[in-house]
């Protein structure tokens, strides 16, 4: 996978892979469970994963109020957020042309804490992104839980999107040779739900989990 | 997923999840296809995905010499590299305790270009990380290909590792209630190889690809 290229949102090197469709961006954001945040802490760049959700033109990022990295993000420091999906392995006839099928979004901006009055709705979006349908099945969050959780909002307005979904592009001399070329698809599979050891007898698997597991 | 916590490599918030076993780190690095790099470009943190491989105590990162972000990394700028695997969804009785099973490594340091005399071996490691067994099946890289490819090496010496693999930890009052709790496993599935449209007749699927697809 080539890295993204421009310091901000204009991709220079592999222009044919850059996409400007907001709809394609939203599809990626809505189908991916984890993002990676870059932020500068004490002069040192830090990359870390975290759960997220999209709410219209906002990316919601979830964290604990006990995390120094998240507190730096919450303080309005510039951040970059990468959302990446791997769709396959491109097996070219040469090592050089071998690569990955991917969808890669990089967003830029500064995040702010979601106001108290919007926090319950934002947490529901995050729960729904993880387990669709779950927020209606669980009890409301307690005040203690709300205080311990930080939800940050990043505007979705500065972003780049690259999609690699083509066949290998071998040189003519390699195509004429004996080498194989193709694509090996990668998928995420959701397994059967495993009940917790302390689950009381007679409690059925909820609809959200059945839907997630496809069972 | 809670974000990692300390500015550098000491995790403060969820100490029970932090691991110090280098073997567990290597297992994660050796089984994950893509990392996310954080670097500061023109004063702005950037997060981007790229392919990588481990070679002993070195993380090899792959990029194009045409990428400004990779050139910044190659110049010795401080970087952070996140390597993340998602293993499942933790469905707790409350939204608050619901989370992810994950393995999350964050490395820190500065990368340097691999010397010319080591570049072929380093590229082979990267090819092997993507498609095990492939490097022996393809022709050697040409001089032009070597010049167009940058391989950077980051020492694996400053890192943190967090592993979340437990059951939901609901409060006693929730455990006594009617809510379901458990874990939904996530796996990566490798599909059947798809031949390229320009593949000549009679060229068999190579062993590396058969092994990758499990076919």
UniProtKB/TrEMBL annotation, chains A, B:
GO terms for molecular function: oxidoreductase activity. Its EC number is 1.-.-.-. It comes from the Bacteria. Keywords: Oxidoreductase. This is Pyridoxamine 5'-phosphate oxidase family protein. It comes from Mumia xiangluensis.
